[in-house]
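WARN no homologs supplied; continuing
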Amino acid sequence: MIEFAPALVPLLVTLPLLGAAIALIAGRHRHTQVVVSVVTLTLVCAIAAVLLFVVDVGDQAIAVSVGGWPIPFGIVLYVDRLAALLVMVSSIVLLAVLLFSVGQGAADGDDETPVSIFHPSYLILAAGIFNAFIAGDLFNLYVGFEILLVASYVLITLGSTESRIRTGVVYIVVSLVSSILFLSAIAMIYGALGTVNMVQIAERMSSLPQETQLVLHLMLLVAFGIKAAVFPLSFWLPDSYPTAPAPVTAVFAGLLTKVGVYAIIRTETQLFLDNDVNQLLLWVALATMIVGVLGAVAQAELKRILSFTLVSHIGYMIFGLAIATPAAIGATIYYMVHHIVVQTTLFLAVGLVERRAGSTSILRVKGLMKAAPVIAVLYFIPAINLGGLPPFSGFIGKFALFDAAAEVGTPLMIVLMVAGIVTSLLTLYALMRAWNLSFWREEDDSAETEARISYLGASQGAALETERRVIPKIMTASTAGMVAVTVALTIFAGPLYDVCTRIGGALLQPMTLVQLEQEREDSSGEPENGVEP
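OK structure emitted
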């Protein structure tokens, strides 16, 4: 192991927090804030790439006790392949969206993204996301959630319009309910087991009656299910995300729900292996896929279409997790990475459509293929990727999930596979219908087209109009960069999928406290008592 690698782990959280402090102090200097934010996220991305290389090549996770406190009394930061991969992908997404927002801020001033509060809030959001991914105990995971939620409260209400305040209140109330439930579960786990360290919880959980385990298990699942927008706990998302500024919507859609999915993955593979609820999760995955995609088909506003597809595709991840085989877990991680990148890219592309056409309603936007061919391409590529057309990463991830389900071969697995195929086709239909109407349809199309889509006229956002605005080159460039990343997920699918396969195998092998302490000693270079053996 590279000797300096453990020292890099705390920087994943401290660098964004330090950057947020500097950005807040430099509140009246836009250029300084931009430089600080870009440099901070670039450094985090580089650090995460180094850590991923170290833990993958060394085949050993890095455990760091903050302040040198022995396990389990201190805070343990834990970086394995999964945590390092998600931090790296998240930092890439955060950096691209930041550049998009810089262009928007330069063009619009402080109306949409007030520079004095946007950059500090954005970096605090990043710190919360990174902290959640590397948390080694449940309470630190809770702290990570609360950090990112506090920042998201600010970001989702930027501009202070009536619709943003209204949906922001709903988002805040739902998030607080989830947090209270999560904190209550942590208190009950600590009362029952005397620890919040995930490794110790996994070791001691078998000492509890199955009924007690089930109660704790379901409490955590409901808390994380709200954050992940799993049906029927996803009611808040389609109304909350579309009202926020385009950069905020993009980063929320790409990352915030995935933090909830990540927490569910840790819960299912690490804490409750002997108390599985996989049958329940399979039915939840089925409902999430079908209800989400049917909602997307019924929408006439691009952001709402994407918000409902976001919900439906969370179902694929729950599906893979519930299969509970190493191959399925690996496919789930790959699909999770794919969805973070592709969903963010689509929301950025829709942000460009909104600025160019003055609307995101597919009933009102026409003729963008001729007026804005670059935007047409930037929307089309991630759209067919999300729809699962070969050879893109969406197809690869779904095929891997279906292959893992076919190996199990139960009737319910076959039902889920059929539902997954139907969901994919309906996703493609909804996104291509939007592309056809918004880009391919000419301004002078006949009333026949209008009649065919008249059923969408009563859907929310159908009459939405905004002001047409100039599109700075940096906004187009950042979106194009994210499209390139989506293509890279296909080109480098082999190496990435190999890493995800190794993650899947490792997650289903529960770690013991002895192993965690050994990794902490290896990371620090000294045994806990300070004496070399």
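Residues 137 and 197 are 4 Å apart (CA to CA).
OK
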